[in-house]
Design brief:
Layout lengths: L3 E7 L5 H9 L17 E7 L3 E7 L7 H13 L6 E7 L6 H12 L4 E6 L13 E2 L8 H14 L15 E5 L13 H12 L3 E5 L4 H7 L3 E6 L4 H7 L6 E3 H9 L2 H8 L10 E5 L11 H14 L4 E5 L13 E4 L7 H13 L4 E3 H8 L3 H4 L4
Parallel strand pairs: 1-3, 1-4, 4-5, 5-6, 7-8, 7-9, 9-10, 11-12, 11-13, 13-14
Antiparallel strand pairs: 2-3
Length: 380
């Protein structure tokens, strides 16, 4: 499920945490009169009416001081890379200063829609800038109006379809879900859930099978509009699925959905250009317990060595960890990024492009190495 990331920014003691608690109707953040109480970004995933599925982020004050303060400011600014909507909280007794102006410039530079909120409306408020709104986190005034304004921005955001535009009502789509040591026990991973939900919404008929039952399933159902598989099973699945049936993977579907498909396809070509000893960064958007056959740290490096006949230096990151400076790498291979919002994913790909580093994703890289890339990016 694609969740809108809403981040609250501002100076220390502007009332960010109090406003977050009012906004969410939960004691999400610790509130104190002591400046700098919030020392790390605080994230909360939730369903929030009338906004729907969201991630709320409370950030440290942008005016923090000292060595630790600088680190906290850096972490606050890092949140910009994952922010879909920014709420700039201004202390009503102080007004908009240089810190707020710099944040607004950052929002505009990164093309992040934002709202300026003058807090502490129960006190004497200085001049209210054009377009800003006045609220009182203490009294709960203006909170519903703020939610409505955020809801308008969410509705205006352009979202790409996942797979619903590729199918018609009544189409059968076979989803191949291998069950191996790395598969989560008793549950489907997020991309599989998202695809199933999108297909159901389009009136299509998803049929979920293991790779070991794929051939049997294709013989029992039909005609099949498309087969979507876990990228790790490309080699096996591509031999079973007839050429006339479009074949792709969850990872490639996610690249299309996140808007980074074309750049990922171009990045995969670098696999043919790498020199022996080149440096490759393999990055995952989530954190999980590494298995003995982990795709990122074990399978991909093995497949890359086998495909190229060369040896490389591999580095690995996971979760929100992603280097600012990428010039040390010759290629970046990213997961499907199902756990990251579109803003975060595009920020990572934009950094790579700006620094001239080719970047691709798991499914496209595997399709390239298995010799079926053209097939798996042709959605029919």
């Amino acid at each position: 499920m694609e969740r809108t990331h809403i981040a609250f920014f501002g100076r220390r003691n502007a009332g960010k945490s109090s406003l977050v608690n009012r906004f969410t109707s939960q004691e999400l953040s610790i509130v104190s009169d002591v400046a700098g109480t919030t020392t790390d970004p605080v994230r909360k995933t939730m369903e929030l009416l009338p906004l729907g599925p969201v991630v709320i982020i409370d950030t440290p004050g942008i005016d923090d001081e000292g060595t630790l303060g600088s680190l906290r400011i850096e972490r606050s600014l890092r949140v910009l890379d994952e922010t879909d909507i920014a709420i700039l909280v201004v202390d009503g007794s102080l007004g908009v200063g240089d810190d707020e102006k710099q944040l607004i410039e950052a929002f505009m530079h990164k093309k992040i829609p934002y709202l300026v909120v003058i807090n502490k409306g129960d006190l004497d408020v200085t001049a209210v800038p054009d377009g800003a709104m006045v609220v009182s986190a203490l009294k709960g005034e203006g909170i519903e109006e703020l939610k409505e304004k955020v809801a308008v921005i969410i509705r205006q955001r352009k979202t790409r379809p996942l797979v619903s535009d590729l199918v018609e009502e009544g189409d059968i789509v076979v989803l191949v879900v291998p069950i191996d040591k790395s598969a989560p026990k008793d549950r489907l991973i997020l991309p599989q859930q998202m695809v199933i939900r999108d297909l159901l919404g389009a009136g299509a008929i998803p049929v979920v099978v293991k790779d070991t039952e794929l051939e049997l399933a294709l013989g029992k159902v039909g005609p099949v509009r498309m087969v979507i598989t876990d990228s790790q099973a490309f080699a096996k699945v591509s031999k079973i699925v007839p050429r006339e049936i479009p074949l792709t993977s969850f990872s490639i579907i996610m690249a299309r959905f996140k808007g980074i498909l074309d750049q990922s396809i171009e990045g995969a070509d670098m696999l043919d250009e790498l020199a022996d000893g080149a440096k490759i960064l393999i990055s995952e958007g989530c954190t999980h317990h590494r298995q003995c056959e982990d795709i990122g740290t074990v399978k991909l490096p093995s497949w890359i060595r086998e495909y190229t006949g060369k040896d490389f230096e591999f580095s690995f990151t996971s979760g929100l960890e992603f280097p600012k400076e990428l010039s040390a790498y010759d290629l970046i291979i990213h997961c499907g990024a199902c756990m990251l919002g579109e803003t975060e994913v595009n920020s990572r790909y934009r950094k790579a492009k700006d620094q001239g580093i080719p970047m691709t994703n798991y499914g496209i890289a595997i399709g390239k190495m298995k010799g079926i890339l053209k097939r798996v990016i042709d959605f029919g």
